[in-house]
Amino acid sequence: MTGTKRVVFIKAADVVAGAGRDEAPIVQAMVIPALHQLQRAGFTLLIDGVGAEFGSARNLLKAQGLSFFELAAMDLAHGRPNVFMYRELLGGASLDTGRSAVIGDTQVDQLFAANLGVNRYEIGGQEIPDWGALAEQLVTRPRMAKTQRRTGETDITIAVNLDGDVNRSLVSTGHGFFDHMLAQLARHSGIEMQIAVTGDLHVDEHHTVEDTALALGDALRAALGDRFGIERYAFVMPMDETRVNAALDLSGRPTLVWAADFGRSEVGGLPTEMVPHFFRSLAERLGATLHVEVRGENTHHMVEGAFKAVAKCLGRAVSLSANASVPSTKGVL
Listing from the earlier edge strand, what are the strands of the sheet with 144-150? Predict the structure, then answer.
């Protein structure tokens, strides 16, 4: 498993003035504490410059306890930076494009960021006056993602913000009971969700439910990125006569173990067979191990309890813990 990594691409000259020259390097203001802050927040530092050209700067940064990869100078052949050179350095891991960044103010930096699919930041302007402001912006950036899924059966747009305002959540699928269940998922997880779905409900509910789960899983997975600092595990819940045991692990290994015996074939116009199908599709795209056991008599309560229990699990699992690390001995999820 290679996972993803959040990476900051930096030019040596933006860290140390004089890098590549004979004069003694001068460290840019705020850069050392900023780079330490980024590393504590799980960012990998890739700095371009190799050999003697970068020697003095390399030694200075290492003396400050900073670890980083050296990225060979950008290949400008054919007029574009080489976007493949970093992959071997990262051990084959993919970029967490939502949280990675290129630092620089040149056209080459702009093109490099565009080719990587990440944001570019310039230091020295009104918005980002120094390295301290840059580090703060990168570290505190909300965990957000948006996904679109268009097929012959459905047209879906979903945006999630793990750190947003759940009161801004909006759900519209064209199916009232399914809307109600998705609203429970947002409310009880504390995750802001904007879900807009147009599906072939005139045929049946299958495509709408399945494709919504797939798109939601994609959005949540993208928002989680490298999963640095998350709680990872969670479990719960009772609802009247119904008891739901749910266990969730954001492991990167999709699995659903489901146990429920619904007394009705449908509730609120939704076939109950689509409930485990929804959670299976969600777990698949989210990259989660999910166990759900439902006991009860009222089918409505059982279905709603399942959504609420999984929501509580999800909210707990995506929350940030005090441990500044990826919650795995492998170092990736």
Answer: 144-150, 154-161, 192-199, 170-172
